[in-house]
Amino acid sequence: MMAAADVVVVGGGVVGMTAAVTLQQRGARVTVLSADDPADTVSTVAAAVWYPTHTDEDPRVLDWARQTYTKLSRQAGDGVPGAVDRPTRMLLREPYVGPPWWAPACADLLAEPAAPPYTALLRFTAPAVEMTPYLAWLRQRLAAGATVRISSAYWGKRGRRQVAASCLR
Ligand SMILES: Cc1cc2nc3c(=O)[nH]c(=O)nc-3n(C[C@H](O)[C@H](O)[C@H](O)COP(=O)(O)OP(=O)(O)OC[C@H]3O[C@@H](n4cnc5c(N)ncnc54)[C@H](O)[C@@H]3O)c2cc1C
């Protein structure tokens, strides 16, 4: 029997757990359903470095990047387990035509000349996350008021129907 919940979050990786913690902070009763233990998700093995990649310039992405940067840097300053600010260097090969589109999201980006074959060196602070302690911290924050259920049965048809019914409460 599933405990009463205002919201059912499907997925116990960093996205699901972060959503669950945020919803709980806003007063919702949350149940997280995950086919895997949070410690066994893709999130656990991520390098988890802040850096907009595999995406083109987009105002929405810039806004998400800025919010993520601010939040992760604040968490690093607050001593959240796994959250760190890393001095980062990026060497460019393509002609340098000015700061990258994501520079406004970043606190301290500086461009310097670089020796060939490179065209420029970007220096900036990149928030990064050690995922094992970070996921454990998220789970600990949830522990007080939320339920985390781990079962491969959610992959099945019957499981999916049960989850959908819970979401409609
Ligand atoms: C090697 C590597 C390096 C990476 N480096 C970076 C990086 O530097 N920076 C960066 O931003 N990103 C990086 N990523 C990407 C990052 O790991 C992912 O974007 C992120 O972990 C996705 O999180 P998630 O919570 O959405 O998914 P996941 O961590 O995959 O979690 C998915 C969850 O959903 C559950 N689930 C799925 N289907 C069902 C179902 N039907 N029923 C119930 N539960 C279900 C799973 O059990 C799991 O709990 C990297 C990834 C890899 C593999």
From TrEMBL:
<keyword id="KW-0274">FAD</keyword>
<comment type="similarity">
    <text>Belongs to the DAMOX/DASOX family.</text>
</comment>
<feature type="domain" description="FAD dependent oxidoreductase">
    <location>
        <begin position="6"/>
        <end position="74"/>
    </location>
</feature>
<dbReference type="InterPro" id="IPR006076">
    <property type="entry name" value="FAD-dep_OxRdtase"/>
</dbReference>
<dbReference type="InterPro" id="IPR023209">
    <property type="entry name" value="DAO"/>
</dbReference>
<keyword id="KW-0560">Oxidoreductase</keyword>
<dbReference type="Pfam" id="PF01266">
    <property type="entry name" value="DAO"/>
</dbReference>
<protein>
    <recommendedName>
        <fullName>D-amino-acid oxidase</fullName>
        <ecNumber>1.4.3.3</ecNumber>
    </recommendedName>
</protein>
<keyword id="KW-0285">Flavoprotein</keyword>
